Amino acid sequence: MGRKWNNIKEKKASKDASTSRVYAKFGKEIYVAAKQGEPDPESNRALKVVLERAKTYNVPRAIIDRAIEKAKGGGEENYDELRYEGFGPNGSMIIVDALTNNVNRTASEVRAAFNKNGGNMGVSGSVAYMFDATAVIGFEGKSADEVLEILMEADVDVRDIIEEDDTVIVYAEPDQFHAVQEAVKKAGVKEFSVAELTMLAQNEVGLPEDVQAQFEKLIDALEDLDDVQNVFHNADLSE
């Protein structure tokens, strides 16, 4: 799964380069998770996942606290979770996840981003079946063999474990996110370079150099939308 790890690194690097936008997206996601359940991560699994992900992007504590306090105070903003599916150049497939308080606005903006940048939207289910919801957790300080032994002893099932550039990356079912983290934390891991719930493509497609530029413009246009939280795709951008 090395190629998939490369795509995750590319995505994370892109987010790291636009911190204010990333912080705003996390603030919204934390607010929604806290409002939908208890505003305490120890009793709200969805909130705990968001906070663990936020740590890897160094989201300031002030933004986290403000979003949780807003939820505690019964904030009046309500958001719908939406998923759009579509196609980019060269047979590439794209999933767009959004949080919005105006469904019509978001649908219009997402469709326009596709149409203006060489893509087109598909119907629900036209793309998602080619992706797998996956927990991806990366950290340093252990070898892949050590991590495998740790997880086996903790009775945690995972899909794959790889080691690349001194980083161990664990791929697991989404419901094993916390189990993986807790097991390796007990073994001495203190920080995570990546902690994501993502959609991994079952098969990736390569893009010619000229097409890759167009594809990246499409992805940037989608990620720049205020209502869009995440964009997943099956293009191999590691070349």
What report would you give on this structure?
With 239 residues, this protein is an alpha+beta fold. It folds into three domains: 17-72, Integrase, N-terminal zinc-binding domain (Arc Repressor Mutant, subunit A, Orthogonal Bundle), CATH 1.10.10; 82-128 and 204-236, Alpha-Beta Plaits; 130-200, YebC, transcriptional regulation domain (Alpha-Beta Plaits). 44% of the residues lie in helices and 23% in strands. The protein has eight helices and ten strands. It has helices at residues 2-16, 19-36, 45-56, 61-72, 103-116, 144-153, 177-186, 209-223, and strands at 80-87, 93-100, 120-121, 131-139, 160-164, 167-172, 194-201, 205-206, 228-233, 235-236. A four-stranded antiparallel sheet has the order 3-1-2-9. Strand 1 (80-87) and strand 2 (93-100) form a beta hairpin. The relative contact order is 0.18. The model has no long low-confidence stretch (mean pLDDT 90).
Individual helix count: 8
Strand content bin = 15-25%
The name of the CATH topology of the largest domain is: Alpha-Beta Plaits
**How do the strands of the widest beta sheet line up side by side?**
3-1-2-9
Classify the secondary structure makeup into a structural class: alpha+beta
